Amino acid sequence: MKKATLTVSFDSEKLDALTYHMSKKDTDLQTELEDTVQKLYEKHVPQATREYIDDKLSREAAAKPKRPVHPASAGGSDNMLT
Questions:
Q1: DSSP state of 77
Q2: Euclidean distance between CA atoms 50 and 44, whole angstroms
Q3: With contact defined as beta carbons under 8 Å apart, do 1 and 54 qualify?
Q4: Residue 19: helix, strand or coil by DSSP?
């Protein structure tokens, strides 16, 4: 899935205070913002449109070939004798 980047302007002193207090509660600003945008999406985009997009993304993910996993090289430190 292709990601888009959002830019939001916010007073830097307020942002510092927000991130400080969120970190005291082990909360991440990025995660909170992503959750909020997801809720806005669910609130404003009709259910039928969301289902269409979810189906399209599922089909695209299934169509992408998986990258093969390459074993570690034979010259690695695991093969050294001591």
A1: G
A2: 10
A3: no
A4: helix
| Rg of the chain taking only CA atoms, in angstroms | 22
Residue 19: partners with Cβ closer than 8 Å, 6 or more residues away: 29
| pLDDT of the residue at 64 | 78
Residue 33 confidence (pLDDT)? 96
Q: How far apart are CA 67 and CA 70, in angstroms?
A: 9
Q: What secondary structure, in 3-state letters, does 49-72 show?
A: HHHHHHHHHHHHHHHCCCCCCCCC
Q: Quick one: tokens of 25?
A: 């509660």
Prediction pTM value:
0.69
pLDDT tens-digit series, residues 19-49? 999 999 999 999 999 999 999 999 999 999 9
Tokens of 26: 């082990």
